[in-house]
What we know:
Blueprint: H1 13-21, E1 31-37, E2 43-45, E3 57-59, E4 62-69, E5 72-76, E6 86-87, H2 88-95, E7 108-113, H3 114-120, E8 121-122, E9 153-154, H4 155-158, H5 172-179
Parallel strand pairs: 8-9
Antiparallel strand pairs: 1-4, 1-7, 2-3, 4-5, 5-6
Amino acid sequence: MGKETFKYVANYCEENIWQLCRHPVLAETDKRVVIVSNQAGNCSFWQQQSMPDSGPVCWDYHVVLLAFVSGEWCVYDFDSKLEFPVGLASYLECTFRPTQTTAANAPFFKVFPGDEFTRTLSSDRSHMKNAVGNWIFQPPAWDAIESDQFPGLHLNEIRDFSPKSPHRVLSLDELKAAFVQA
């Protein structure tokens, strides 16, 4: 199935992935939601649709879905130029280029079970408004994601990659070791 099968609004990656996790076609699939960022909130990604040439785009954070499909972990990234889905090893190799990345813009990862993410995520979309309260990017037509679970996963909390974050942060090598089959 192509990307057009699923709900998508540019610049709302966490909501797109939340919607994808809940889609019936992936109901029986083992899923993990991956938040990608770093302490500086400036992470380089190659092969992104928002960059027309071959250079990287820098995101403050990005959210993708890992799903176990046909014996391997695959990535669903709505904003990537790569296949949808694509094998995790290929995605990591094409998207994060260690030889072209500095320590300041290297990726780090937080991984959450898909069912936990869909059940507990809350986002009031405040991070998408400017200082006077206007939208930086037009929001999705669907309602903002709210959870009555406590403790929940609040978007601002899961975007925090500082040492005080209560969630485990993985390096690129640690993510590979955990999810890429040898």
